Fold:
Amino acid sequence: MADLIQLVVFVLLVTLFAVPLGGYMARVFGDGPAPGDRFFLPLERAIYRLIGVDPQARMTWRRYATALVVTNFFMMALMYLVLRLQKYLPLNPDGIAAMPPSLAYNTVTSFITNTNWQAYSGETAMSYLGQMLAITYPMFTSAATGIVAAIAFLRALTGVRQDLGNFFVDLVRAHTRLLLPLAFLVALVLVAEGAPQTFQGAAHATTFDGKTQVIPRGPVASLESIKHLGTNGGGYFGANAAHPFENPSPITNLIHMLSMMLIPTSLMFTFGRMIGNRRQAWVLYTAVFLLFLGMWGIVYASEQAGVPAFDAAGITGGNMEGKEVRFGIFGSALFTTVTTAATTGSVDNMHDSLTPLGGFVPMAQMMLNNVFGGVGAGLLNILLYVIMGVFLTGLMVGRTPELFGKKIETKEVKLASVALLVHPLIILAPTATALLLPDATASILNPGSHGLSEVLYAYTSGAANNGSAFAGLDADTVFYNTTIGSVMLLGRFVSIIALLGVAGSLARKTPVSAGAGALRTDTPLFGAVYLIVVLLIGALAFFPALAVGPIAEQLSMWFGA
Amino acid sequence: MAKDAKRSPFTAELVRRAAIDAFLKFDPRTMIKNPVMFVVEAGTAVVLLLVVWPDLFGPSGATRAYNFAVFAILVLTIWFANFAEAVAEGRGKAQAESLRKTKTETMARLVQKDGSTKMVSSSQLKKGDVVRVEAGETIPADGEIIEGLAAIDESAITGESAPVIKEAGGDFSSVTGGTRVLTDWIVVEVTAGQGESFLDKMIALVEGAKREKSPNEIALTTLLAVLTLIFLIVIVTLVPISRYLGIALDVATLVALLVALIPTTIGALLSAIGIAGLDRVTRFNVLAMSGKAVEASGDIDTIILDKTGTITYGNRMASEFIPAEGVTEAEATRLALLSSLYDETPEGRSIVDLARRKGVSADAPPGAEPIPFTAETRLSGIAFADGQKLVKGAVDAVSRELSAGGAKIPKALIEKTEAIAKAGGTPLVIAELASAGSRAVGVIHLKDVVKAGLKERFAELRAMGIKTIMVTGDNPLTAATIAQEAGVDDFVAEAKPEDKIRIIRAEQAEGRRVAMTGDGTNDAPALAQADVGLAMNSGTMAAKEAANMIDLDNDPTKILSVIAIGKQLLITRGALTTFSVANDIAKYFAILPAMFATAMPELAPLNIMRLTSPTTAVLSAILFNALIIPLLIPIALRGVRYRPMGADRLLRRNLLVYGAGGILAPFVGIKAIDIVLSALGIR
Structure:
């Protein structure tokens, strides 16, 4: 019962923050004046002058996508050079050596794509400069990239303009008006709750048995805030959000979860404002939240039900393996659901230790990739499934399908299909390849279905730009570094480019004012259609792999094969 | 032709020919146009190899009999798909054949430069040749009458046995090759060379020889191809994934799973649905130039309707002559009669009729000449030898003419015209124009009658979200009355021919799709501009060429039925796609547990249908997948039931039937087939 109340409070808090922030973002990226113009505009103008950007310039989808991709690849090249040359660069007091090529490739792709898959070990593999330029810096830019891609898509749906806006202006504003202020605020709250924020070195303490313990610390709170706000997920410590400095209390646990949900949920309301149909936003928000709650229900119920073997041994009260006692089953189950729904990838419990069905949920959410999803990218995926839903069911009202009054024709279907196809392809094909290669299977810790889950989880996490690890898989090998790195890049940019293409094509169409004969997408009925399409098209592709993986494992645990 | 086709959709002959054609369509070169069925065919070929060499892909527990059963069911699946297409095409082919009989070679009287005629074969005629056709002869080619008037039997094309009158000049001068002259004679200038005549086009259309996929069909095919590709990836990657778990999957079963998962139902029926949609339009005696046009008619947001002939019966009848002050009624009647002597329009004739019935008669004085109606002046009448003119026309046209001479229509008369217009009538003002002084002498009251049943149909259209705009040359008051009486949403009064194209462009600029009907030459640009242009077969060649549909029955209200057919086509396509995709859930639950039955017995709880054995499970699933195709052929050909209603209700209803039905039907079907198979002793 207490758990249920907590859940309701969580849902209400998420919604409470999302609605106003969504409205704020609609104004920040809209054409009219926005709050704080007096303070931000001069600052932004100075930045535009510095980088030589004309803020009035309007971009077609091709120019927008090109600017996005080139800017990201430029940052990626910079990050790669820093990691490869860190030995010779300043801010390296511990004399950390250059990162090997495959690991450096994996690390930069991981952080530029908002994945934060960590094959490296932060303390030993990276200098301070590396931490700053290859980790913290892209945590802001990758989140901003996702946001602006979504905003550009939304502009195409408004029907009032044919361009997608200006990438550089959007990118700058996403930093100045959204990510930096929010990150600052959240960091302050985390400090108040006990997360360290210091530039002093590790603390040395003497334990009860007289030994000296070295306790690493540092500017933890500031990293934590953007890590979750930007759905990044790369932790300061190896234990990630299970570490007491990253996540000292149930309150910080809640703040982390709210931070992760904040921008993905707000963007749905931004969407409602920008297309001038708030009902639409509520319908999709409710549908996605139902999916989220269903997923949470599976983890929660499965962890509460526990493991029959433990029950037989007299250990009751659910499965607490791999969980922090201070978060319990509820806090862990919710964190697991949030971190893989919003594709953050930070963890406050070990996903490898979840019951098979509990471990199925994070994987399933990343396979769907649109249970809110990462900042920006999630909304793009939601809209991809809206397009699919409109295309499949729209015909049934006797018109060729329309999305917000704009016809979905061959060009849009082709581009959307690319985005739809790439996700299962880059999860299943490398998983199958890895399982064929003896070197790659040697990295797997557990045999059988659970081992399969470890590999499947790794590629799913990469493709969904989540970054959480199932653990158990030694992924720091040349094979996994390069394949997961490439999967992250493809998972990120192929779908962004394809969907910006859809946006470009839609932007040029004149919207028809919806009459009684047009399919309405802002009804509960369409909310149901959306859910069914997500499950039919998004989930069916993964059903066989999940069946022989976690589902088989769970069934054999229950029925003892 | 149209009338026979309405009777029986499936004749024994048609089915027999389609059954044979279905085998010919196995040719992979034609199959590749349908990516879904092509994958099925490729899978069938793989299973065929396994029938011959069961251990081709390593030792397999599958028996040759099992592989053969899978192979046979897959062949059946493809054959059903081909059969659906062949049946749909067959109906068109049958129609084409009956049309071809019409196109027998005839002898034609070619008129030579010196005026003499020479008998030549119709196949030798070229564009620009002039031929004379006499009573009882078949018109050898498409053309325009340049001389004469005749009653023509067009039943070969339209199925309508009542003859039509065609004459030189005006909008009723075009004749079609293959039709017969019943009375009198005509001289025709040939307008279409061999192979490009109306009949040739019609044959090509109904036969589907030049059938191109419509835009939405292409988009849907793309999506189906991608879904197929996704499931291909799923199946191919399942092999190494299972091998890692120490399971060697049986290839025939993998192919069966692939075929069950890819959208074969809609893949098999998609082209039949398109052909049948075109065919339904044809059976309505409307000739659609492409599937695209039929599809576009489902998307129509706005219909532009001529008031005259479409909304009203067309012949406005004179009902009253109202004299101006200082003119007697008899005088007004006489002047009305005089002004209409040369007016051959139905309205003009009704004026003459009414005047004669009132006992007034008049003949044109010597030297008088007609003033023909033009779109610019919008006046007609008579010009006397002394230079005086008597004209009649709409209020604004006459008033413009009078003001040129410094006169104007008296206020009392204006009030009369307004009263007429308010009552739904059309006032025509009669005016004398003379250098000495011009004056309005009276008003003719023309009455319009709205066709029966139209108001209800317009209400239906409104429920479907379609806006109707009435276009008329009448004054705003008249137009408003008729508009209200007919229940159209909007109207444009005092419209000139070029207004139609302006309205269409304005609607299209707001993203709306526009349909219109027309028959005159000055309708041609608007017919071409409209997304759906329906020309009357009686109309001019220019109109027919500009339109993308031609109504052989000359009934402009048929545009409403065409829209319904277009919507039905799209709904059928969407409903069967949804059904096809929704089927996958049950198929997974049938085949997956069967596939892993021995290697992963823990998956047995997924066999929620409790199918007898792995063999019966796989066979039942693909047998269901095959049998659902012929079961749905009637829906594909007839179209799903469609009644005009709002989109929300339509969606709810179709989602329930084809979405929820699509999820549940295979659970029931597969279980039923499984029971039958195990009763037959198959394990």
Notes: Residues 128-158 of chain A form the longest helix (31 residues). Chain A touches chain B through 68 residues (CB under 8 Å).
